[in-house]
Structures are given as C-alpha cells and as structure tokens.
Amino acid sequence: xxxxxxxxxxxxxxxxxxxxxxxxxxxxxxxxxxxxxxxxxxxxxxxxxxxxxxxxxxxxxxxxxxxxxxxxxxxxxxxxxxxxxxxxxxxxxxxxxxxxxxxxxxxxxxxxxxxxxxxxxxxxxxxxxxxxxxxxxxxxxxxxxxxxxxxxxxxxxxxxxxxxxxxxxxxxxxxxxxxxxxxxxxxxxxxxxxxxxxxxxxxxxxxxxxxxxxxxxxxxxxxxxxxxxxxxxxxxxxxxxxxxxxxxxxxxxxxxxxxxxxxxxxxxxxxxxxxxxxxxxxxxxxxxxxxxxxxxxxxxxxxxxxxxxxxxxxxxxxxxxxxxxxxxxxxxxxxxxxxxxxxxxxxxxxxxxxxxxxxxxxxxxxxxxxxxxxxxxxxxxxxxxxxxxxx
Length: 391
Known about the structure:
It is a single chain. 32% of the residues lie in helices and 24% in strands. By secondary structure, it is of the alpha/beta class. The N and C termini lie far apart (61 Å).
C-alpha cells in the first residue's frame, strides 16, 4: 500500500507544519486581546504577560522575510538579546497569507488570501492579488466593475481595535505602494522614515497602536540570498536604528517580528519543460513556486500524481485538495467561500531548496530568485518575536 502525502511529509527532515496555536496568528491575537477585541484564537502567553503592564503605546514592526534563520546569522545583536519567543508562520509561508493574517487577525482559511498569484474567475485571469496585477502580463487592474476587496475582502484589525477600545488611536506606517488600510496612515519607504514616525507618534498624548511594515530584508533576500553581505548589512543598520529609536521612548512596548523566513534556492525548474505534466492541465498552475496548485483533467489525475512524483518527488510532496484542507494547513475556522475556487485538485508543497517557475506564453518575466519562501522548511516557517520594553 502506497503512503499518503501526509505520511510522506511526516518522514521529511527539516520541515515544520504550521502551529496555529503558536504562530504569527497568536502574536496578533495577543494584541487584539490587549485591546479588548473578541477573538477565538489562541494568544501567546509570553506576550500576554508583557502586555499586562498596560503600555500607552504598543508598536508592532513587521520586517518582511526576517525569519529566525536570518536573525541567527547575526549573533549577539540587539534583537536577539531581546528575543521573547519563536513561532511558526501561517501556511503558505508567504507575504500574502501572512500579512493578511496580521491585517485581519484571522488564518488563511478564513480570509482566502493564500498566495501571491490566485486565479480570479470574476476577472478571467491570474492576479498577483496584493498588487491587483495580472500575473503574466504585469498589467494593473483598477477599472473592474467589482473591486478585489469586495470579492475576497476581510474585516481589518484597525477598526476592530478602535471600536473595542475607543480611547485608542491606530496608525499604519508602511511603504507608499502598500494598499492603505488604516484611517491614519503614514508613509515610510525607508527604515529612517519609519523610526521617525514612531518617535513622533509615541511622544504624543493618548493610547496608540502603531502597526509598521517594511518590505526588507525580503527584497534583498530574493535578490542576493540568505548569506549575502547585502542582507547582513541591512540588518545591522536596521537593528542599530531601531535600538537608537527605543532609547527615546517611554511607556511603550515595541514588538519586532516577521511574516515568514527564507530558503536559498539551489534548483529552479520551469513547469513548461515537463510535457507529461502539461498535458494533464485544465489550466495553468497557480499560487507560488514552492506551494503550487494544479487543476487536472479528471481522467488523468492518477497519471498526473505518478508523473509529478517521478519529476519532483525528491523536492515536493503532492497532496490532494482534500488532504491539504483536512490537515488544516490553512488553519482552523469557517472556510471562506473563495478557498474552493483558489485551490485546484492538488497542492504541491516544497520540502527542499527547489522551486518551480509558473509561466505561459504571455509571461512578462520575473527575476530568478536567490532565496524565496512559501515552502515547509524550518528556514521559511520559523519567525522570531522580539520585545523591547520602555517604561
């Protein structure tokens, strides 16, 4: 009797399943509970204890891609000296799913923001949904009859916090290209801009929650890889700037964390090079290079499984949609109505250092990534929680 995909996953070394009772969802749950927002999810005990001091300001800084392995490359730094906990990302371990978990306080199963490229039947195209951009042509779509957020929208934490704790003002600090979500938004395209905004906001009167996002080191990691001097120098500079910033703060808890980690890519494949797989497709695969979903012709499903395992069994584990959902990779809760649309018949999860490009004849081209994420390796899944208390 052949082993199931889940059994194969459990035999793999150096992988980690998402733990939704001890994940980035737990981090944002602690903050929501601190501000009296009702939530069914499990918070972080260690962070709850920090928040018992009832700080005037709570600052959450999410540095995209700064997984535990990235932080560990710089021993004895200010961040590692203030390490409170280590949690898992959600799955897929990618910005779309993870940042939406922060923004919504809910797991991917409830938001349906699963991965970078998702097929939108309403638009008849694959979209990079964080940017409303056609995944193959690069065209941005802002002229549709129904906005993307109307179709797969979610309730954001900002209004929930202000409604539950009406003496609290919420601020969002993020790069200018990021879709604005909070009523009070401040642009920060650099760490310098971010820390200046934090200092000014924290010195003002009144209780505040300040949510900050920076897209590095993720961008640098994709270009240069996890062991590069560029990433190391960025982190050294960023850590120094945050340390300097905290020296001027009072009555503030600063939480520094990430959305996911990174895994260096050693092998990259193009799905179009595998004709035996292509003939099985109803439509092109979707999601991301290390977590792919496939829509397969009904009469070819068994053949597809056999061929995929021949081609990629060394690097990926193939699950049926049912296996993927029944084992709660996307978390627990009420399944969003669009999840069934976004997942095909199979989901392939990377357990290695390999990635698969998803392309077609309209593909406008993207850079080869030195490092990436969305798989199940510990490097991608483990995220540090750093807390800095200023009384």
